[in-house]
Amino acid sequence: MKTPLAIVLGAMPLAACISFGAKPPPSLLTLTPAERVPVGQVVTSAGARAITIAVPVTPASLATARVPVQATPTSIAYVKEAIWAEPPARLFARLLSDTVQARTGRVVLSSVQAVDSPNGELAGELRQFGIDAATREAVVTFDASLRRDGTQTLEKRRFEARAPVAAIDAVSAGPALNTAANQVAAEVADWVGR
Questions:
Q1: Residue 107: which CATH number?
Q2: Which of 73, 89, 140, 164 is most solvent-facing, going by the fewest CB within 10 Å?
Q3: For 70-101, what is each residue's pLDDT tens digit?
Q4: Helix pair angle (88-104, 170-193), 10° resolution
């Protein structure tokens, strides 16, 4: 008859083989705005025009924390160990908000804050936010729709930026996508601000 100690010691090698989830990546990716809102700056919707920026809708390939790679025109893979800290659409919306406020001086409001305000509204679809394997570039494509202050007319415009990637890996994908996303955000801000 085996003692309880023998049973525990016999089960220990099995404990090393059991895993309750995927191994976490070495780090998580995020976006950093090239243009920042100054810390401590107070802005009010009474003294400046305001705008609401919605989180963009995305195709299913971007509704994940992984970085897609357009391997062929009809197939998508994902960059190994490249994981976003939060969904890319939210990261991009936050980047747009910071860039629009920094470049235009507009007050960026949440949809809750803007209920009775005649402010502008920016929404859209983040169509591409990944790596193109054929060209070895990070690609960000945003189809924007803008309703300017006090109007019901919508303006639509497509923005796209590309940045080269040295390799299709987690180390290269993040900085290249950050560069392309900042370029798109700056172009959108200039369009909003005119």
A1: 3.40.50.10610
A2: 73
A3: 988 899 999 998 999 999 999 999 999 999 99
A4: 40
